[in-house]
Description:
- There is one protein chain.
- With 326 residues, the protein is an alpha/beta fold.
- It folds into two domains: 30-109 and 211-318, Periplasmic binding protein-like II (D-Maltodextrin-Binding Protein, domain 2); 114-206, D-Maltodextrin-Binding Protein, domain 2, CATH 3.40.190.10.
- Helices cover 46% and strands 15% of the residues.
- It is built from 15 helices and ten strands.
- It has helices at 2-20, 43-50, 53-57, 69-78, 88-96, 141-151, 167-175, 188-194, 203-206, 219-224, 226-243, 249-259, 264-275, 284-298, 314-318, and strands spanning 30-35, 60-65, 83-86, 101-106, 114-117, 131-134, 160-163, 181-184, 198-202, 214-218.
- The longest helix is centred in the first third of the chain and has 19 residues, at 2-20.
Amino acid sequence: MLFEIRSRPLFSQWLRCMASMPAPQAPLPKVRLAIISEGINTWPLYVAQAKDFFPKAGVEVDVTLTRSSARQLEALKSGGFDIGFQQCDHVVRAVEHGSDLFMFMALAHAPDLTLVVGPGIRSFSDLRGKTIAVDGAGSGYALLLRRLLAEKGLGVHDYVFAEIGGSRERHDAVRDGEAAASLLNPPFDRSLLEMGCGSLGTVAQYFPEYTGSIAAARRGWAKANESALICFIRGMNAAFSWLRDRRNKQEAIDILRARLDIDPQGAAAAFDQFAQRPWPEIRKNGLQQVIDVVWEAENLAPPKGAPEKYMDLAYLQRAGGVPAPS
């Protein structure tokens, strides 16, 4: 009895302590995100990670760098990843081959890709007989490049597409003379230009309305994980809005340079360009261009799919829609 009397105050104190502790929180839903390569277009992702915008929005995001559009697409279709940052033609092609993939938000404007060429290449005709570095020969911007080369008088047998990998690998191939040209995004294009390589123009110049990179998921996964998907979109939107605020310029540059080998001046110029542009959108006319390119490249049987077959922006709208200019 003496032990019970002396112990009762300690027991009461323990109860009060337990009552004052915060209740354990349920773990956040997890999303497995795959990206093909790194670049300025993935700047909002870097910001979302650095500023914890995903957990603040209610989701945990695991990011995998695949360095291959083909491997990433197969894993995305089979359930190895939940969301993939892809080029829109990948989704169109996958849907036409029976996949339930769909695009739910845009990530970039018309492709900011430069056709960088090595020494001695001054015109499209100089590419005759040369090797051109691409990610996948039958997908991505290689399709646009084939169309551009055809418009410039080069047939499919006048050059060789070498599947070398992501932006960094293609950059190195042109730098080392293994390839005469490649379509490259910043900062890899600027790096080669500073080394003395040339340019035959940009994709945005030749195809200004073409849809840029997008985020895609499987319809079945999205339906079963609607809350996680909406939280993911909100995290990306928060990152984009933060990135467009000029008060965050220096911190944004620091975040970018921690991920990419880019000089401060180049990063500052990229921020200024990024901050003045609106959030990219998936538009029907731009997506129709993509569909036309895929049909031409694949010789698919009619009828040709409408843009709505490959996209669903309802999740984006439930997440708040496209961020308004700051």
